[in-house]
Amino acid sequence: MTDPGAALDPARVQRILAAFGPASDHLQVAVVDVAGDRIAVSAAHDGLLSGDGPGAGHGLVLDIQCAGGLVGHVLATGSAIGDPTVVAALDALAAGLGELAEADYRALRSELAQARLAQRSFVSLRGPVVPGYDLASHYEAAREIGGDFFELFHVQRRRRPIGVVIADVTGKGIGAGMLMAFARPVIHAALDHSPGPAEALERTNRILVDEIRSGLFITAIAGVLDVTTGRLRIANAGHEPPLLVPGDDGPIDAIEGGGVLLGAFRSLGAPELDIRLRPGDSLVLYTDGVTDAIGPSGERFGEPRLLTTIEAARRGSAHDIVDALRDAVAEFRGTVPPADDVTIVVIGRQRP
Q1: Cα(77)–Cα(120) distance, rounded to whole angstroms?
Q2: 106: burial class by Cβ within 10 Å (0-12, 13-18, 19+)?
Q3: Could you tell me if 291 and 240 are in contact, meaning their C-beta atoms sit under 8 angstroms apart?
Q4: If 0-12 CB within 10 Å is exposed, 13-18 middle and 19+ buried, where does residue 258 land?
Q5: From the DSSP assignment, how many helices (H) and strands (E) are in the chain?
Q6: pLDDT of 18 above 80
Q7: Is the pLDDT of residue 115 over 60?
Q8: How far apart (Å, rounded) are the C-alpha atoms in residues 276 and 112?
Q9: What is the DSSP letter of 48?
């Protein structure tokens, strides 16, 4: 959830406090956040902020409320705070700052809600219908704007193979969402026009290295599935290894082998891996929001729970596996807010 305290814009608060500057011999005013860190001060010096907390050593501490919660304090000291008129003005200052912050907060929430709708409109939450295959997915953003993305789509070439993409932008929030919006169509187009998934990721990486200077990077898996033979070629750029669940009840196998994450270096060095999905087999792809989910005790969901959950659901469909993982993570997390975006994609080849 967006932090209401972020709506206290330092530049604007500083302009407001500038009105108290001429009276600095008799009145010093500061605005701090809930942790006591300075947002703005009325005088050129910050001696007012010495101490162990927002109210330490100050004559007056007034709360700033926004969206029903405390987001900061107005601190004041000096001989003028003995004047009731000055106290009333400072009280009005705290109330006014709270109203300004709330107005900005509501506007930001509205903009984020619109951005969330826009993002969900181009994240493909459903894969195409492919005879003989079961394609299922789940996506949950940790914040209004997510950094995970995935796609299952028909690649534009002969025999219409299925393109498979799952990716995770480092970081969360608006910056991650913007990079996701940029990278998703780039990977899609690269899969359409490259001989294989490894080359598609290399092309995407070169564009990210040349064009993006955000300090954010992307882990990704790209693949091309031949629906006639069940041959799936994949390449992995720093992402969690996919899990092959054999239909003959054999052990679940992590498909290891990959390169570095996208956007970090000019070359990925990601090998192209060849997997054969036989009737009854399933392939599970996920982002680290699954294994890094935190429970009330602070413990991670982790790989052992991931494998145990898949094992219990493996005789079902791809949708059954996705639902089991989604529910297991939600139950494990309880009332703890998600620490990261959660994305699960399962490709199952149906039995005859």
Answers
A1: 50
A2: middle
A3: yes
A4: buried
A5: 7, 14
A6: yes
A7: no
A8: 42
A9: G
- Residue with the two structure tokens 């000019």: 266
| Boundaries of every domain in the chain | 4-118, 123-349
Q: Are 261 and 238 in contact (CB under 8 A)?
A: yes
Q: CB–CB of 161/225 below 8 Å?
A: yes
H-run or E-run covering 115: helix 84-122
Tokens of 51: 């101490």
Sheet of 38-41: strands edge to edge? 38-41, 28-33, 69-77, 60-66
**203, 209, 210, 213 alpha-carbon torsion, rounded to 10°:** 150
Q: What does the mean pLDDT of the chain come to?
A: 85
Q: Residue 11: what residue type?
A: A
Look at residue 53 in the predicted model and tell me its pLDDT: 45
- Residue 178 neighbours by CB under 8 Å, 6+ apart: 214
Rg (CA), the chain: 26
Task: Domain 123-349: give its CATH architecture.
Answer: 4-Layer Sandwich (3.60)
- Angstrom distances, CA of residue 122 to CA of 149, 185, 290, 347: 10, 10, 22, 20
Tokens found for residue 206: 């070169």
Tokens of 33: 């956040």
